Amino acid sequence: MTIGLLKGANKPGHKGWTTEKCIMCATTLDFFHGYELKNIYYCPKCLSNGIKAYFCAADARKVHYKCPYCKSDLKPYYE
Ligand SMILES: [Zn+2]
Ligand SMILES: [Zn+2]
């Protein structure tokens, strides 16, 4: 039974955030690596197409907050 462990790793109140990686540099985006949700950006269009288009703050700035794949505006994960 590992359900208890899984629950502990994913606390309620954070919109069910699971660990994701920056699609550009593969940095792990989560609290345990010093990332706060407000520093994480995502592309809603790519996500709706099943692409895990999450970006770290540095890469989001690098692409001028536009998705390099579909040219949509990136959105901060947590506003
Ligand atoms: Zn990155
Ligand atoms: Zn996109």
In this entry the ligands are: zinc ion
What CATH architecture label applies?
2-Layer Sandwich
Series of H and E elements:
HEEEHEHE
CATH topology: Herpes Virus-1
Flag low-confidence runs: 1-13
- Large-scale geometry: globular
Task: Name the average pLDDT.
Answer: 80
* Percentage of residues in helical conformation: 10-25%
Short descriptors:
single chain, 79 residues, Herpes Virus-1, two-stranded antiparallel sheet, 23% helix, disordered N terminus, binds zinc ion
General description of the model:
The chain has helices spanning 3-9, 44-48, 57-62, and strands spanning 20-21, 28-29, 41-42, 54-55, 75-76. By secondary structure, it is an alpha+beta fold. It has a single domain (18-76), classed as Herpes Virus-1 (2-Layer Sandwich). It has a three-stranded antiparallel beta sheet with strand order 4-3-5. The chain is globular. The model is unreliable at 1-13 (pLDDT under 50). The structure holds zinc ion (2 copies). One zinc ion (ZN) is lined by residues 43, 45-46, 53, 67, 69-70, 72.
In short:
The protein has 79 residues and is an alpha+beta fold. The chain has helices at 3-9, 44-48, 57-62, and strands spanning 20-21, 28-29, 41-42, 54-55, 75-76.
SSE diagram, text form:
Elements (H helix, E strand, L loop, with lengths): L2 H7 L10 E2 L6 E2 L11 E2 L1 H5 L5 E2 L1 H6 L12 E2 L3
Antiparallel strand pairs: 1-2, 3-4, 3-5
The structure holds zinc ion (2 copies).
One zinc ion binds next to helix 2.
